[in-house]
Design a protein that fits this description.
The protein has 605 residues and is an alpha/beta fold. 42% of the residues lie in helices and 14% in strands. The chain is built from 21 helices and 15 strands. α1 crosses α10, α2 packs across α3 and α11 packs parallel to α12. The protein is elongated, with a radius of gyration of 26 Å. The protein starts with a strand and ends with a helix.
Length: 605
């Protein structure tokens, strides 16, 4: 499930890191199937394996409720001398939520299995917040996994191990975090969902990291922010003592709990220094030649490059520089710019600008005023029917233990000999194609919905990986994808990917190939922002017209959700008399056209 893509990970970076290779991997943990997402960044930006050629690998593990995104500045600072593996743990970000809570033990096994699946030997591992617990548990599970670890703000203080106290400490620390950390963390918490957060929280609160850390023989560095109330100084000292007393302790001035974001350069300094020390397991270390090449690229004077440690110190700040680099005026300015009032003003400006530019022509259109109410009402009726069908299936499963499956009758002549997969659009489930699926099955078509897409809120490339996994599982060839709205972008991404050879045709209904200007109405953190015309994934797909000839598009006479139109250069387009974006999946004319196109495709073989 690997694909080299340009993703939104770079959005908050000061400079671009090499495009990561994103992997969506299924693992069997504690008897259940879970998914983990990794972002692999090689030092030279090539497609080689992590650690190949003696380059050390640094693994970054996030905390509860968030994702790998807040590690991007840190990955930037590390990518010049090391390979980096960031990961999203199961249930977080947009990953599917496991059927039952994993606990820290389950997350620890997930980390072990992920590192082994990536073929990494003896990496340097950083764990932040709950991620620190996950790292400790992983080394309890597999002592030979890593010989060097760095724990940032490890919870939970044994003297305050209660939900109320930890919540208060977290709020105290959050009040002193940079505003941009909130812009990353809040959407991540919303994507994670309260249900999964509440299931994981008790495991984090009850994990006895102070006793587990005694079993860790790896070289240990403990780091906290000056204003990190979740990990106070006495707690960090207790952990160092419990580990055997050999751990190094650092406190970062001006920092709170998410110390690796605003002070990523200092954490990078600590990680690189740790990666320069010999591992008890014999893992790779940072090479002096790589550091000297970096010094030459940064035009570092020879006087500051006597040895590798001098180079790292000259290029990245140390504790003393961090403590003294923020002046009073800079502190005041940062607080003003990071205040809620300033943030609200900026968000308001962005929203007003996007709404003005994206809807000026659309809302003035009489077609929009005529089409929108009826089409959206139709969408509500579709959702009601889908919920009723889902409830009916749930009751059937409770009563019988299995759900009814659609049967394909035997026909002398089928409409098409190829399996047809349906790819739903944003905020829709596979059930949106229910009427079309019934119609096609009555004509002998093997219709296969892809249930794993959920409501298609995840990024385009991740949804494409799920489609690819289904195609591989079924081991199909010459499949046809019938996709609606965002699903068409997912289908094109599949055509461009490693499993594209399995797909002969894509029939896309109302797909925003150039994005939708109305995406400007969505919240800045909302999934609908993926359909903004400026989105990097949409721009990248547009740069690959070589597969457009395998795509047939079906467009409504007026599509109120895609004012720019749904035609695609180089693709065959069929225009309907029917108006409305949401009528394209079950409108009589649209279903008849899809049936006709499938027959034409089969005849043309």
């Amino acid at each position: 499930m690997r694909r080299a893509v340009t993703v939104a990970l770079n959005a908050w970076s000061r400079k671009k890191i090499p495009d990561p290779v994103i992997t969506m991997r299924a693992l069997s943990i504690d008897g259940q199937r879970v998914f983990v997402r990794t972002y692999r960044v090689t030092r030279d930006g090539s497609g080689r394996s992590l650690g190949e050629g003696g380059v050390p690998v640094i693994v970054l593990v996030h905390g509860i409720g968030v994702s790998a995104r807040y590690f991007i500045p840190l990955a930037n600072a590390l990518a010049d001398v090391a390979d980096v593996l960031m990961m999203d743990l199961p249930g977080f970000s947009t990953l599917p939520v496991p059927d039952k809570a994993l606990g820290i033990e389950g997350f620890g096994r997930t980390l072990v299995e992920t590192i082994r699946a990536e073929g990494i030997k003896d990496p340097v591992i950083l764990g932040h917040s709950m991620g620190a617990q996950v790292v400790v548990e992983a080394l309890n599970e597999a002592p030979d996994l890593a010989g060097r670890i760095l724990l940032l703000g490890p919870p939970v203080n044994a003297a305050e191990r209660s939900l109320v106290r930890v919540g208060v400490r977290f709020l105290q620390s959050s009040a002193l975090e940079p505003f941009r950390v909130g812009l990353i963390a809040i959407p991540a918490y919303l994507q994670c969902g309260m249900h999964w957060f509440v299931e994981v929280l008790p495991a984090m609160l009850g994990y006895p990291v102070e006793s587990k850390i005694a079993n860790v023989s790896a070289a240990l560095v403990l780091v906290r922010g000056e204003h990190d109330y979740v990990a106070p100084p006495n707690w960090i000292e207790d952990l160092a003592t419990a580990s055997g007393g050999a751990a190094e302790i650092y406190t970062v001035a001006h920092a709170a709990h998410s110390v690796m974001y605003e002070h990523h350069d200092l954490i990078a300094h600590r990680l690189i220094e740790l990666a320069m020390t010999a591992s008890p397991l014999g893992g790779d270390v940072v090479r002096e030649e790589d550091l000297r090449q970096l010094a030459r690229r940064r035009h570092l004077p020879e006087a500051d490059a006597h040895n590798p440690h001098d180079i790292v110190t000259a290029l990245l700040p140390n504790d003393d520089e961090i403590a003294g680099r923020e002046t009073s005026s800079a502190k005041v300015r940062r607080r003003i710019m990071g205040s809620p009032l300033a943030a609200l003003a900026h968000a308001g400006h962005v929203l007003v600008t996007d709404v003005r530019d994206g809807t000026r022509e659309t809302f003035r259109s009489p077609q929009w005023r005529e089409t929108m109410p009826g089409d959206y009402w139709h969408s509500l009726k579709q959702e009601k029917a889908n919920l009723v069908a889902a409830a009916r299936d749930a009751l059937t499963i409770m009563r019988r233990g299995w759900a009814d499956e659609a049967e394909i009758e035997e026909f002398e002549e089928r409409l098409t000999p190829y399996p047809v997969y349906t790819v739903s659009g944003m905020a829709q489930t596979w059930r949106i194609f229910g009427p079309l699926g019934d119609k096609l099955r009555a004509q002998g078509v093997d219709v296969r919905p892809i249930e794993t897409l959920g409501r298609s809120m995840a990024p385009i490339d991740e949804l494409a990986a799920r489609v690819e996994a289904r195609l591989r599982h079924d081991d199909v060839r010459n499949a046809v994808l019938v996709a609606h709205s965002k699903g068409g972008l997912v289908a094109k991404c599949v055509l461009l990917g490693p499993e594209g050879w399995r797909v002969r045709r894509v029939i896309a209904l109302g797909t925003p190939w150039q994005g939708s200007a109305l995406a400007g109405l969505a919240p800045l953190w909302g999934p609908a922002r993926q359909l903004n015309p400026a989105n990097g994934e949409i721009a990248k797909l547009a740069r690959h017209p070589e597969v457009n000839g395998r795509i047939w598009t079906v467009s409504a006479s007026f599509d109120e959700q895609v004012p720019q139109g749904t035609t695609l250069e180089g693709a065959r387009d069929v225009a309907l008399e029917q108006a409305g974006h949401n009528h394209l999946t079950d409108g009589a004319e649209a279903m008849a056209v899809v049936s006709r196109l499938l027959a034409e495709d089969a005849e043309g073989e």
